[in-house]
User: Fold this.
Amino acid sequence: MSESFAMKLIRLFLILIFLISGLMKLINIEEFYVLLCKVNITDIDFLNQVLSYYIPFLEIYLSVMITFRKKKQSNYLLIALVATVFLLFHLYLKQAHPNLACNCFGTKFKFNFISSMIINFFILGSAYYLYQTKILNKSTSTKSPESKL
Amino acid sequence: MLKEIIYTCVSLPLVLAICCSFLFPVELSQDDTINFQQVSKLNDYLLLDARSQIEFNKGHYPMAKHAENIDQALEVIFTLKKERSMIVVYCSPNCNSSKSLAKEIKDALEHNKVYYIAEGFINE
Assistant:
């Protein structure tokens, strides 16, 4: 398997997972909004409304950005940051509201806590790998990208 | 790099989210339910018992306030200053009064954090 093919596969995985989870949240925005209300992040209803739209839009936007602007490093760093925030949110949810389903990848896909954590870690690792690879490609063309991992 | 990330975060997605929140505010359907275990994990909420006074006196969930109709419910809500808190309504198992009262409260207060316990009050 060539490196570029592996990178393409990882990018495709990121594109699909962000696109699908963003669209699933938008399609069933009410359920996602209810989750945010139940978690009680803020008492201000409008902020819950904005957040319930913002997260799916950000996910779709990121998937579009890594589709059409795949060489931009900041996209991969942002995906890693978003994945970290999702991980922390997931841990908080497990700790503070154990009875609430995360719906992290939309309401159509019901993953348990362990599966969601594994997927989140994989997203984080993938984004970091692509970020590092892009940096290496930019700084040197002789070294293999995987040698830095 | 940081500038690019901030720009990406606050540009299109945030603008779209704010516009959508104004244009298409999320409305809860009255099918939205919550169970007592979830309620007990919440910090700031008001629990309303929509059953009759006699049933309420026989037994009710801890911290619950009695409110059979919208007037009593609003009186309790405003007395306790819980207008912006999460409000949870329950009644007997298989009754509909909690659902309808939740809808009335939601319409009266014009906020969406109103739920009802579908399984109703289960005296253990």
In short: The longest helix of chain A spans residues 113-139. Residues 37 and 148 of chain A are 43 Å apart (CA to CA). Residues 3-148 of chain A form one domain.
